[in-house]
């Protein structure tokens, strides 16, 4: 008999308008890495939230070590040794790293908090697994990569034996992903059992022992990874073959749409600039990419460009007009679209409906407003049109509260809105983060179409495949500066890596 640590049998979970999990069975062997694959909205996070006690299923049974258990809330899950790293982290921003890790299982002796012991344990774990964190940093000040390490340490601190990772690699850099893969293999070798959600088929091929596939809430099958291929996985998942390469003709750049001159941004953390003397341009009809390892100033640069953050010096020209000091709304209505890095903080109002989110930057325009009142019918029609064009799936269509949508569908909604809005420049930061392979193929095609229709595209991406596949020119950012410009057709991943790690730079050459 197989040694299953967890069995989820015939689980059904419904939400208004949708059966998110329809009679799903998933069996996790002890010590295995079990990948869970499925399109955006297929029901992966829901199934894992059922296992973690966040949702109670209408039907089905969960067994732990062969015995039926009731998991009504996350405390029950923790007691059973089940931990979860969520797709959208659940950390307390204004607490320190250490406080977040111990939250809910604070160590105490005679009723007093013994934080020093906790600190020692956290440091021990972080060294053992090479999970670098600063225990005293505030969570709001640390990178997403570090936030994720905090979430992982949280599970290890509780000695969890079943570890759920909901799309852990969507927010990581290639280097961090390699690290995480190593850590997962180590944990599995120690006997921990891992459920791993990812949209990246290479990762599944690399670390997973088995993979279960869901489609539209239904269980499709489970395969041994050693006996399958990426092509088989993707066709099981979307029901058709997926192209992995982007088809595009050479770019035919026209007039200059964006000009960035000597832009500097002061760091909020240290005394140096986080963006230093950045200059480049983007012309109509080309896709320019800023590549680099996360944390090298890309976020701060985009903040300054779009108006989310202050710029300390330099000049930004959009369609011939100096917009350096202009407001976000001004830029939004004068040619700039922006798919932001953090979809929850800057992309959506989570407690608004999908249709309200679709007109966030335009509700005051005559198309959607008359006499101070929103034109409800127009708003709905507009939202429905975008949702169907970009295949944004949700339980209740335009009326769905965005918070309840799956992560990938939230992302598709933002991309749809920003691409459809009147613009000359699209600033797309990690536009395909968290999307399934079918949706990525679609978004990439749309970006190329935009380019061919004469839009200027500034892509900021950590995904090297995306950078190489989609860009017409690549600028590499390192420690806040543009250290080189390469032609994707002439360069190699190795050369790009040298620039990204600071080992190579174009001396004295103006990146332009
Ligand atoms: N709390 C909720 N309330 C209402 N509907 C929900 C809720 N959570 C999920 N859903 C719906 O259930 C479906 C499955 O969502 P789920 O988040 O499980 O998808 P997923 O497979 O994790 O997708 P992704 O890859 O995009 O993260 C979606 O259609 C979503 O809109
Ligand atoms: Mg999900």
UniProtKB/TrEMBL annotation:
Signal peptide coordinates: none
SMART domains the UniProt entry points to: AAA
Stretches assigned to coiled coil: none
A GO cellular-component term linked to this record: plasma membrane
Entry's transmembrane regions: none
Organism: Pseudobutyrivibrio ruminis DSM 9787
One function term, GO molecular function aspect: ATP hydrolysis activity
SUPFAM superfamilies named in the record: P-loop containing nucleoside triphosphate hydrolases
Membrane topology of this protein: Peripheral membrane protein
Family matches, as InterPro entries: AAA+_ATPase, ABC_carbohydrate_import_ATPase, ABC_transporter-like_ATP-bd, ABC_transporter-like_CS, P-loop_NTPase
Protein name per its UniProtKB record: Simple sugar transport system ATP-binding protein
Keywords: ATP-binding, Cell membrane, Membrane, Nucleotide-binding, Repeat, Sugar transport, Translocase, Transport
